[in-house]
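## retry 2 of 3
previous attempt timed out at serialization; input unchanged, resubmitting
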Amino acid sequence: MRATLLILTLMLVPALRAQAPVRSPNELKAFFAANCVKCHGPDGSGLGPEGKKLGGFDFTNANEAAKESDADMAKAIRKGLFFGLRMPSFKDRLTEEDIQHLVKEVLRKAEKGKVIAPAP
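## retry succeeded, writing output
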C-alpha cells in the first residue's frame, strides 16, 4: 500500500509543480530586442545587420506576414530554420505559451519604423 502511494505521489509531483508564468508582452519585447534584432531588425522589418544577407523575415509586411500562419511562425521559433544555421531554435529558452504569445502579441503587431522594445 505504501509503495503504491509513493509511486502515485512521485507520478503526480511533476504535474503539480507550478509552471512558469507566461511572459508578458513587455518581457517578450525584451526577448526580441536581445535575440532577434540581428536578423529581423529593431522594428521586425528584416533589415537587421544579418537580415539582408540571410533573408530575415519582415513581420511588418502585411502581405508577406499573411502567407505565414501563427503555427508556422511558432514552429520556426521553436525549432529554428535550416538546422539552426539560418535561425537558432529557442525551444530551450521559451515555453510553448511564450512562443505563442511572442507571435500574437509582438510579431503580428510589428510596425515598420516602430522599434520593438520593452516599455521603460
